[in-house]
Amino acid sequence: MSRADPHPSRRAFLGATGAVTATGLTAGCDSPAARPDRPPSPTPTPRVPPTGRHQAGVTLPRAAQPHLLAVVADVGDGVAVGPLLAGLGRAVLTLTEGTDPRLLGLSPGDLTVTVGVGPRLVRGAGAALPGAADLPRFSRERIAPRSRGGDLLLQICAGDPLLLPVVAAALLGQAGDRIRERWRQSGRRGPEVPVTGDVSAPRNLLGFIDGIVGPHTPAEQRRHLWLTGPAPVAGGTIAVLRRMELDLPRFAALSVAGQEAVFGRRRATGAPLSGGTVASDPDLGAKTPDGRYLVPADAHVRRAHPNVVGAGLMLRRSYSTDGPGPGLLFISFQNDLRTFTKTLTHMDGSDALLDFTTTTATATFLILPGFDRQRPLGAGLFS
User: Fold this and answer.
1) Where are the beta strands (DSSP E) in the chain?
2) What is the pTM of this model?
3) What is the DSSP string of 45-68?
4) What is the pLDDT of residues 177-204, one digit of tens each?
5) How far apart are CA 194 and CA 173, in angstroms?
6) How far apart are CA 376 and CA 383, in angstroms?
7) Is 238 helix (H, G, I), strand (E, B) or coil?
8) Residue closest to 154 by CA, chosen among 97, 232, 74, 99
9) What's the pLDDT score for residue 34?
10) Rg for the chain (alpha carbons), in Å?
């Protein structure tokens, strides 16, 4: 009713009374007002756009979803890779939009699917391309042949764990007999712990905040994360996956101080043993009055520190696992595989954390640049 019409019309009056009557009838049946014990409807999870310069699932969403399923597969000999990837990209669009009947009525919510191709396929497109190199072997590995390497990565992340196997089945069905699954691993992240600004990180199964250091700002990501050329790979990145078993009983038997010495950080706060807050850079030169390093020589934060290693930053999106034993699915993204290999080589010598880990699967992939309906997934690289 407008201010210029202070007297309600007969139509407005009937509409209002009709609304009241309908509300009353609804309340008398099964409305929330009549069922005070019914929980409120959950707030819809914001959708993550799948298109753009970069694929979703690396820096989008900003805080990684709590559930992940990684599927690693091989592509059959003679299969045309371009059409395979283009079809997967179209399926990703319909699945994330919620229009794909293969979702079985589930809402996609914050679903992301990130697709990568392994070194064998990259070498087929160009031996000098980023992502063409295989991972070397390291110590503390117990890896079955089918758990090493692979041609195709499907990284599926979501807030709803029911989506993971449903989306994986849809994508594998899309590919059909052109691919053969090698291994898969599901994982979950704990609640996010604030680090600084809008940066947060979860705790791992060892009780410590995981993923504090990384290229978090746009400038750092341009320098350390995203590939800038050649054109077919620009906007992509290099992923490393390492599935590890954790020796929880032996780690839990350490005192809290002993556990903190392994990481070089406080368990409760994530702050470096040299002082400061969780966001502080460790002072690796700080010593006690009797000359001992505050951050031990074999502490993880020292052995993996980019300045000590002489390598770039890695963006880590690691997930805790529980099958067949407690473990960690380590996932790092970087624009140069040497960032990872130099770091792990330096850790391999005397990183105290590695004494509690055994790697059971490993692979590296070129995460393809972003795509849309006009520019299919993998276009330019696998035309």
Assistant:
1) 67-75, 112-117, 152-158, 179-188, 193-196, 199-201, 237-246, 315-316, 319-321, 327-334, 357-367
2) 0.88
3) PPP----SSS-TTSSSSSSPPSEE
4) 999 999 999 999 999 999 999 999 999 9
5) 39
6) 10
7) strand
8) 74
9) 43
10) 25
